[in-house]
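The records we work with from here on pair a chain with its fold. A complete example follows; check for yourself that the lines match position by position.
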Amino acid sequence: MEPIRRPAVKRTTLQEGMTDMPARKKSIAPEHASVSVFSRQLEFPMLEELDILNVTDEVSRVVQESALLDGTVTVFVPGATGIVTCLEYEPGVIADFKAAIERIAPRDIPYDHNLFQADGNGHSHVRAGFVGPSLAIPFIGGELMLGVWQKVVLVNCDNRRRTRKLVVQVVGS
């Protein structure tokens, strides 16, 4: 099989790239404005595969604890079999989400991972990979800018119960 050939990328310096751009406006932020970072690690017991927890209140509390008013909060689950996402947290959506995950990466088909690892969780890694381990949410006035029904959820894709860590990092001013 012949390798894929991609066109060369033209690299420009900042000055070259700026020649066709309009003059920049001066920032309206005061010169003394600074950005702060505030981090917390939380832990949640996950009781089973596809256990889904609403962690919105805990994330909001970390933003409040940071005392920052405006910025972005990143929510991240370390590990290769966890998911962080937004869902409407009600029984119908939860059931639909679990069914969709099962259709995307069924547990009862062969996975190469399982040939090399005895844990039998190849499907867990694939499931987590499709959705991802992190979420960024803006906040204004210390309040998460989520939709009315939108909740931050933590999902355990692993085939066993475990305690999941959640890293919540608030960046702003």
Notes: The two ends are 52 Å apart (CA to CA).
